[in-house]
Amino acid sequence: MDWKEIFTPPFMADTYNPGTIWASNFETVTTPTNLMDIAADNYVFGAEDAMATIVEAMNAKCEGREPKCPMKLEDIKYDGSDNSATVSFTAYGDKMSIEVRGWGLLTGPMKMPPEEAAAIQDSIGQFIVESVTEANKITTDGEQT
Question: Is residue 97 part of a domain?
Fold first, then answer.
């Protein structure tokens, strides 16, 4: 099973809860971690800009178009381990991270074995990183960096 069957593009950032990304089928793709909450408390617009960048990069990659991201994110990486699935990055000097969701849905109602559920979480987490990495190569005015 492909992650797009679980998390249907296009994606939307939750403007009331920076760090939450929704799929168009209303599944929760990510939620904020404590780092995101702290960053949002310190500078809410930074957290919102970071999430707008991630969502724009994801949607552009799905749609096969050049992204128009409001900013570049630094040090973006995915960590999928036994007890977490997170995408971490730096924006405006703040370390932030988001948790990749779906474990309960995949292993509960969908009755997937843990290995398959982990593979889907890993694939969407890696997709987020790839999308932002590609978008980072393009400046906001469309020139290659």
Answer: yes
